[in-house]
Every structure is written in structure tokens, then in C-alpha cells.
């Protein structure tokens, strides 16, 4: 049964490649992320006897495969051959946003670098545990400043977007500004490293690959080489730090334990979803991943807001022999918040959101910047969601992206700038 997601995702990959003229693009990349994850699950099952720890059932595996496949189908409307132009509406505001991000992101980079160095000094795993318990982290004492820089760090995708825009033909940019934005985007890596976490490295690289695939047709070969060399110079030390943290956490028993930990990191999702689905946890009605929305709803309707008691929630799982703090994909996160039926409705909503966002490309071959931002956000949720719904801790980032979507959506086209592909 563990083979089912892998074969279905491979089939979807082949089908999409055929309708996309066998060009490897952003949707190909999205599906391939889950193909790789499901392949790692097979490795865990075949060589590490992972299956013995789980009572894997057919129903949750089929539901897992169906829900993810439904979301992928929402992206099938995107064709690389149809994506020919980006419409940059309200260009003056866009430039203000671009140049405002640079000092803010660089300041966030410096701010989090200091605490990241502290978190990575000495026993990294012990530091991570102490930071999680609130014993040694000093970020909280900075209050509003920490909150602002955390938001700025989460907006790193915009830095990467502006890096690629500055290298795109037809955009009045400079290579130096592009590289400055690329460096500034690493504020997110150091933000996560401040908590001795390694996810920032993974998410940054995933996002960089996604946006490169999205922008590659708009850049000359020379500019592609420049961005690839610059990215490589940052990826190599980032991966070294990733491995350093991994060794600290999982390498104590030798290389075999580390190898298992890496496969476990990438392939545990279907096993965890199966376990969580089978114990049928009570729906939390958004209190886990969407707590600010639940709190706002309570305020609007005059209800008393009661925060989720995580201890009680964890005990529900632990009493049934299931670990709650693992990777079940974003579909598993939706299961926790909305229950089994609500999870499927949420997957259907993601399907519709992706299709509606991409409708403009099918009709006009042009991507308005508002829809472009929304597409990036939806893609981010699904691609990062190979682990879990990561945006649960970045609610104000979601608000910021939505506000930018609204601003560019209703700015009109009078002051738009259009950039076109230079390669097919």
C-alpha cells in the first residue's frame, strides 16, 4: 500500500509532462517533490523496516493520495508555453516595495545572525531543546522589533522575486540590486537558525528552485549564469549548516542513523497521516493552524475565545500510541483542524484557488502581478506542505501577502510595465 502514492504521483507527473510538451516547469517540480517524498517512504519501508512500527491501512493511504492528487490537478492549468508575459501593475508602488525591502531584510539578516551564531555554538541539539522551552532564546526580549523582523524574514520570497525581476529583460533593474536581494533573502535561513532549526535551509532552496523555473524564460543566458553562481555560493554553506544540525541531532549512533534520519525527514509523511487518520482526532475548527482567524471570529460574534490546550491535544494522540509532532503533510494539518470531511473540502478549495489564480494565463498568456503573488503563495503552501502546513506560524505574512494582492489587483493598468519572455 505504501507504493500507491508513488505510482499515482508518477502517473500524474507523466500526464502533466505530456500536456506541457515535456518541458520541466514549476508544476513538474511540485509533483516531483511529492514523488521524491513517496519514494523515500518506500525506502523506509523496504530497507529500514519502518512499516513494522505502523499499522498502515488502505483507506487513509487512498485518502492521502486522492487529496494530494486533487490539489495537484488544480495546477494543471499552468502551461509553460502559455506563460509569456508578467504585467507589473502600479509600477511606482512596486519599486517602493522593492527598495524598501532591501534595508529591512538586511537589518533582519544582521538581527537574526547574532542569535543564530549563539544557537549553533556548542551542543546544537541541547540548544534547540532549551530554545523550545524558552530557557536561552533572547529574541523575545526585543518585542516589536523581533515581530517586525520575523515578518520581514518570512517575506523573503519577495526578495527572490525582485532578484529575478532585476535580471529579467525589460525590467529597469541592475545585477547588483539582484544579488543584494538574493543575499537579503537569506534572512529567513538565519531566522530559523536562531531557533537551531534546519527547515529554513530546505525551504529557502525549494523556493529558489521554484522561482528560477518560473523566471528562467525571462532572463538571458548570461543572467541565468550569474544568479546560479550566486545561489550556489550561498547554497553550499547552507547545506553544510543543515548537515551540521542533522549530525548533532541524529548522527550520534553513526552514519547509518544519520542516513535513516534523512530518509525519515523526507519520507515519513504517509505513515504519519495514516496513524493520525486512523485515530480520528477531534476537529479543532482551525484552532491549530488558523488560531488568529478563530480568535477574530470569536471577537466578531462576541464569543469567548479559548486557546487550544496543546497538552490535552498531545495527550489525545499519545494515549493512543501516536506521536502528534511529526510531518503529516499540509493535508494532515487540515485533518487536525477540520476533520476528515473538512480536510477534503479544504483540498478542494486549494484545487479551486489554484485554477482560478491561473485562469488569466490560459486566457491572455499574461500573469498580472496580483495573481502572480497569489500563485506564489498557493505554490508555497503546497510545496512546503510536503512536511506540514508551515504557514501556521506566519499568519501575518499571509495577511501581508493578501494585502499586496489586493493593492496590485485594484491598482488598474494605467501605470503597468510589461516584461516578456526572451526564451520559449
Give a written overview of the molecule.
The protein has 424 residues and is mostly helical. The chain has helices spanning 3-19, 26-47, 58-74, 91-119, 124-132, 144-154, 156-166, 175-185, 187-193, 199-215, 221-250, 255-267, 269-279, 291-300, 310-318, 329-364, 369-384, 395-409; strands at 85-88, 366-368, 417-420. It has a domain at 99-267. It has 18 helices and 3 strands. A 3-stranded mixed beta sheet has the order 2-1-3. Helix 4 crosses helix 7. It is globular, with a radius of gyration of 22 Å. The mean pLDDT is 90.
Keywords:
mainly alpha, 3 strands, 424 residues, three-stranded mixed beta sheet
Task: Tell me briefly what this model is.
This protein is an all-alpha fold and about 425 residues long. It is built from 18 helices and three strands.
Amino acid at each position: 500500500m505504501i507504493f500507491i502514492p508513488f505510482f499515482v504521483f508518477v502517473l500524474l507527473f507523466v500526464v502533466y509532462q505530456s500536456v506541457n510538451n515535456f518541458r520541466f516547469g514549476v508544476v513538474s517540480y511540485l509533483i516531483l517533490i511529492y514523488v521524491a517524498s513517496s519514494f523515500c517512504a518506500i525506502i523506509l519501508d523496504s530497507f529500514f523496516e519502518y512499516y513494522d512500527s505502523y499499522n498502515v491501512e488502505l483507506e487513509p493511504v487512498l485518502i492521502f493520495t486522492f487529496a494530494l492528487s486533487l490539489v495537484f490537478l488544480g495546477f494543471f492549468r499552468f502551461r509553460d508555453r502559455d506563460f509569456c508575459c508578467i504585467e507589473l501593475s502600479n509600477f511606482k508602488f512596486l519599486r517602493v516595495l522593492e527598495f524598501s525591502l532591501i534595508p529591512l531584510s538586511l537589518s533582519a539578516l544582521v538581527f537574526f545572525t547574532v542569535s543564530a551564531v549563539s544557537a549553533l555554538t556548542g551542543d546544537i541539539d541541547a540548544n534547540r531543546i532549551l530554545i523550545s522551552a524558552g530557557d536561552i532564546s533572547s529574541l523575545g526580549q526585543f518585542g516589536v522589533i523581533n515581530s517586525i523582523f520575523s515578518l520581514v524574514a518570512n517575506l523573503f520570497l519577495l526578495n527572490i522575486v525582485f532578484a529575478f525581476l532585476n535580471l529579467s529583460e525589460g525590467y529597469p533593474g541592475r545585477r547588483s540590486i539582484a544579488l543584494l536581494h538574493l543575499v537579503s533573502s537569506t534572512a529567513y535561513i538565519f531566522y530559523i537558525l536562531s531557533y537551531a532549526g534546519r527547515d529554513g535551509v530546505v525551504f529557502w532552496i525549494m523556493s529558489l528552485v521554484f522561482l528560477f523555473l518560473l523566471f528562467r524564460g525571462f532572463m538571458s543566458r548570461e543572467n541565468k549564469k550569474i544568479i546560479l553562481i550566486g545561489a550556489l555560493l550561498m547554497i553550499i554553506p547552507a547545506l553544510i549548516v543543515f548537515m551540521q544540525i542533522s549530525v548533532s541531532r541524529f548522527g550520534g549512533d553513526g552514519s547509518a542513523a544519520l542516513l535513516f534520519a534523512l530518509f525519515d525527514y523526507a519520507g515519513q509523511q504517509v505513515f504519519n497521516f495514516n496513524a493520525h487518520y486512523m485515530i480520528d482526532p477531534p476537529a479543532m475548527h482551525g484552532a491549530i493552524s488558523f488560531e488568529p482567524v478563530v480568535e477574530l471570529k470569536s471577537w466578531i460574534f462576541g464569543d469567548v475565545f479559548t486557546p487550544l490546550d496543546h497538552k490535552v491535544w498531545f495527550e489525545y494522540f499519545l494515549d493512543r500510541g501516536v506521536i502528534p509532532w511529526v510531518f503529516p503533510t499540509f493535508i494532515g494539518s487540515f485533518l487536525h483542524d477540520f476533520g476528515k470531511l473538512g480536510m477534503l473540502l479544504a483540498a478542494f478549495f486549494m484545487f479551486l484557488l489554484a485554477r482560478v489564480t491561473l485562469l488569466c494565463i490560459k486566457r491572455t498568456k499574461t500573469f498580472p502581478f496580483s495573481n502572480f503573488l497569489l500563485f506564489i503563495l498557493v505554490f508555497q503552501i503546497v510545496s512546503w506542505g510536503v512536511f506540514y502546513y508551515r504557514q501556521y506560524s506566519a499568519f501575518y505574512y499571509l495577511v501581508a501577502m493578501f494585502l499586496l494582492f489586493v493593492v496590485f489587483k485594484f491598482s488598474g493598468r494605467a501605470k503597468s510595465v510589461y516584461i516578456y519572455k526572451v526564451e520559449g
